[in-house]
Design brief:
Elements lengths: L4 E6 L2 H12 L6 E7 L14 E7 L38 H11 L6 E5 L3 E6 L13 H14 L8 E6 L2 H23 L3 E2 L5 H10 L6 E6 L6 E6 L3
Parallel strand pairs: 5-6
Antiparallel strand pairs: 1-3, 2-3, 4-5, 7-9, 8-9
Helix pairs in contact: 4-5
Length: about 240
């Protein structure tokens, strides 16, 4: 049976969370973390030291949305007679993105309106309203988790090919600008020292931004290393 909830100990909270991610084989944003004990180093780091302890579970939402089961085989469709005039409406199995997200937020206690915009390569759902920034989370983890759930629910039938991006308070643009600035600074350092530089772990979307910074740079290249929530980007000189 799949583990639903586990308790994990570590020297620090971060170490305990890392163990939980490895146990579930899932990134941090996919887990619900409850801190049971923050731990302490004790006197002089020796006497009375206590280990940090957390309770971890897979992040789920009770949406109560009536949808066909993902594993249910598709039933053969009856042939529709050819129309001699007028419109013929086709059945739409996809869940509307904006109403779905608004319903999800409402059940979480955040009744914020959602504005949907059609972009060239994605659909943008912008969460509006005072206080919506609380949904960003540390490093955008909460926003990324919501984005994952919405994509799984709305794109599950495979008809909608555009990915869905969630944003609020212009966070995505601010995050992109800060990542580009950091990447460029590290890139200059690598060129100067001729030694690779490793960035902090980040999600796939952020890693793509960094890769794009150096895609036309003939002196530098980038590689992704690690697994899951701990996947990092290494900036390194191009071998001649």
């Amino acid at each position: 049976m799949e583990k639903k909830t586990i308790e994990v100990e570590g020297k620090t909270i971060d170490e305990a969370i890392e163990k939980a991610c490895n146990e579930f084989n899932l990134p941090r944003e996919r887990l619900k973390i409850e801190i049971l004990s923050e731990g302490s180093s004790g006197f002089l780091g020796l006497v009375g030291a206590k280990r940090a302890k957390i309770r971890a579970a897979i992040l789920t939402f009770d949406l109560n949305v009536e949808e066909p089961k993902e594993e249910e085989p598709a039933k053969p469709r009856e042939e529709t007679p050819k129309s001699t005039g007028g419109d013929v409406r086709t059945e739409q199995a996809a869940v509307p993105a904006a109403p779905f997200l608004e319903g999800l937020l409402g059940r979480m206690g955040f009744p914020f309106p959602v504005k949907q915009e059609e972009k060239e390569d994605h659909i943008l759902l912008n969460i509006e309203g005072d206080g919506s920034g609380i949904l960003i989370g540390k490093g955008g983890q909460t926003l990324d988790a919501l984005q994952y759930v919405v994509n799984k629910a709305v794109l599950k039938d495979g008809k909608e090919k555009k990915r869905i991006v969630l944003d609020t308070e212009n966070y995505r643009k601010r995050r992109e600008e800060s990542l580009i600035e950091l990447a460029e600074k590290l890139g200059e350092k690598v060129k100067r020292t001729k030694r690779p530089a490793t960035m902090n772990p980040m999600n796939a979307h952020d890693r793509r931004i960094v890769h794009m910074v150096f895609q036309n740079d003939r002196q530098l290249t980038t590689k992704s290393r690690g697994e899951g929530a701990f996947r990092k980007i290494v900036i390194m000189p191009v071998r001649k």
